Amino acid sequence: TVPILVDPDGGVIAGHGRLLAAEKIGWTRVPCLVARDWSEEQKRLYVIADNQLALDDAQRSLCGCRRMTAV
């Protein structure tokens, strides 16, 4: 399981989708890592990078599906 990355106040930095999925199946606790002493800028840049990685993965998956269905 990949932990959700949160700030010390419980704000989600990365793992929004995992958190929503856990809530949907009724989990009340999930593994988390706390990013201590991160500046607001560091958190913002991490969110951007994490989202870009997710988009890149989704695009690769979509391209793979299109290739498979076109054959």
Could you explain the architecture of this structure?
It is a single chain. Helices cover 56% and strands 13% of the residues. It is an alpha+beta fold and 71 residues long. Strands 2-1-3 form a 3-stranded mixed sheet. The longest helix has 31 residues, at 40-70.
Question: What distinguishing features does this structure have?
Answer:
13% strand; alpha+beta; 2 helices; disordered C terminus; 71 residues; 3-stranded mixed beta sheet
Compact description:
The protein has 71 residues and is of the alpha+beta class. The protein is 56% helix and 13% strand. The protein has 2 helices and 3 strands, in the order E-E-H-E-H.
Which sequence of strands runs across the widest sheet?
Answer: 2-1-3
Overall pLDDT: 86
Strand content: 5-15%
Q: How many strands, what sense, and barrel or not for the largest sheet?
A: 3 strands, mixed
Fraction of residues in helix: 55-70%
- Our Rg estimate from Cα atoms comes to 15 Å
Compute the number of strand runs: 3
Secondary-structure element string: EEHEH
Number of distinct helices: 2
- Strand pairing plus helix content: what structural class? alpha+beta
Parts with pLDDT < 50 across at least 5 consecutive residues: 67-71
The shape is: flat
